[in-house]
Protein 1
Amino acid sequence: MPAHLRALVTVLCAAVLGALLPATAAHAASRTVQGGRLDWGIKSSFQSYVTGPIAKGSFSLTGGAATVGGSQFRFHSATGTYDGDTGAFRAGFSGGVHFVGHKKADGTYQLDLTISRPTVRISGGSGTLYVDVTSKEKDTGAVTTSSQVPFAALSLGGIDMRGGGNAVSLDNLPASLTAEGARSFAGYYTAGAALDPVSLSADVRAAATRQSTATPTTKAPSASPSKSTAPKATSGAIKDGAVDWGVRRTFREYVTGDIAKGKWTLSAGAQDGGALFRFPSGKGTYKDGKLAATFTGAVRFTGENGLDLALSGLRTTVAANGTGTLYADVTSPDFKGTDVSLITFAAARPTTKNGLVALTEAPAKLTEQGAKAFGGMYRAGTEMDPVSLAVTLTDNAELPALPDLGSAGTGTETSATPEATAASAAPDTENAASDTDSGSDSGSDDGAPLLPIGLAVGALLLAAAAFAVVTRRRRARTATAADAPEGPTAA
């Protein structure tokens, strides 16, 4: 090799090593996963069976789970760890789905299955989806509850999980039922059956900066808490508050579905929790079980066929008889009203503890005025989404946390199968629907999944790594084509 080329290679290697070593040091310890969502339909043909003419059943959502698109469920608030050096990844999500079908004469159901708290574990190139399962055996009726069952095997298709980015995003991972999953699925399917693919996005906190081995500073002892510093007020002026309400699950699905082809937009501080909208900054009074409070935030539903419904200026009251009412300013092409009574909800037993008054998932029904506000789409008395209400009466009381969808939980995203990392795909309808004013933050314009990758270290490093990346992608595509199971059973 000519001398000038040897010198160039030497300089190049030194630059690459100099760039890689600090990155490796930064990845050395596992990093915290905090915030994110997992989208999974479990098995779409099972959903169709449950809600179809044979089982004549239904499903309900628990723990803040939501629906997304046509047949997926969204689980929220990822927590776990990620090691960029090894690619080891663990993330648990909140929420669950309860299926019932084949109603019997005594009012119980022959089919009764709850799947909740999915957890994804990836290590050494293989992945497993764990869930909590409560199921009723279809033949004997015996009820079994199991925690964190290894329910599905996930095909990674040669994806290299190593890296150091601030998010892990995996789209459409093929999933197949394990032997343990088949047993916990009450015998409806056998091991190896194809389940719906799994998609997830989870935020990864930056690694802590390494500090010198200096003697840590000793904190001065804090004073013992006293009653005066932690008041337990049970009535008075509201310091802060929030009302959480999803309007109605089937209405949200109609808005983003094939008929309306629409979306919703949040403004004035309203937040999207997946299955609900949070209207914050509550102000008012709570005394002797009676509450009157106003909240900020607005939501607007738009779509085809004249859909344009805006709700703002929310207000709630709780009367002495325990009946709650939710009011809002309503604007639509056929209806305009201020302080319209939308729904009533059962509020007889709010919990009060350490300055926090909370009501969780109170059943709600549409009022006469509410039926008019929805343009006659629903009749008065129709069951709407439950209402959760919380207000603080002291400065140190904290409101319940909102389901955390992570940084990729809002905005339009694209998805791709593991082997088609550069193929474009249609955007997720529900993600587009839940788009807030902040715009898209998917971080991908070409449909590629947001795989965990390190920050760019300059054009020199990228040029040096180009050949290795191309080779690895070719190997990944070949492996995926051979290993991917068949797609989910058609409904």
Protein 2
Amino acid sequence: MGFKCGIVGLPNVGKSTLFNALTETAAAQAANYPFCTIEPNVGEVAVPDPRLNTLASLAKSAQIIPTRLTFVDIAGLVKGASKGEGLGNQFLGNIREVDAVAHVVRCFEDDDVTHVSNTIDPIADIETIETELMLADLDSLEKRIDPLQKKIRGNDKEAKETLVLVEGALALLRDGKPARLLERRSEDEKLFRSLGLLTAKPVLYVCNVEESSAATGNSLSRKVEERAAAEGAVAVTISAKIEAEIAVLPPDERTEYLAAIGLDEPGLNRLIRAGYALLDLVTFFTIGPKEARAWTITRGTRGPQAAGVIHTDFERGFIRAETIAYDDYVALGGEAGARDGGKLRLEGKEYTVADGDVMHFRFAT
């Protein structure tokens, strides 16, 4: 399943440096994991999950295949993008194609790197991009009202439901708030997503700080964290420059380098996991002697649809899923121990897959 997280930001905030670090990391992973660079500005990276290595060790799996997340480096935005300024149309079009947005904001001072506004103010940078996205959404929604009203006069029930969502989103946008804050019923979610609103995308703020603040953050990154908390969003603090340096180091040198700067893991690991959580994704595992593999699904996915992620035939012919919770698999030393201990369950079509489930699907051919 292709879950995409778009990396956005104003020019000179470190967006491309961050993306390059991600793709360098992915290239390093390629020796052990399947990896592809789909386009020059699109790359896939493994989602760090120590549970997979633990399971593989217990099952003595010959190969380890983690689940992956796609990052898209989106063209830098400038003020006026909603009206087509700079690469505005391309920028807005690219955002429509991703599932979530990682918004890189500059939280470092450097006289050698100019800022488009000639001042370092991450909150103002966030508001510049958010404003352009809101203006684009306003324009899009306002154009929908007349066609929807005509359909309603023809007794189109879906048009009536859509108009309620459109008017609710417009009220928020006119009040300077993103459409993602619209309160809606779960049964309206599919219709809401069909509106294709830019400000409906979940947002992760990435605070790019100077090297000396990589472990602790700074006063600028703390402002972003406060804003994120107020929005119910997430902020991750990293130094893109350090991440780029770590990405090209041999694996045996990385731990020492990280320890020297007060980090226990690369900031990119936190960014990848935060992006994964932002998309409300969970992981299930298939474990055996040939391979230990992690699979990505959205939270709330039922057994047959999870099986379909592996192969469409598995979903069509789904009979049941032999399921072991991760903690039980580990505590009882693997599949045989879990089976003997009564922790292997047979789950049917209505079962909602939990994060960490170890599964074996039975299906009819």
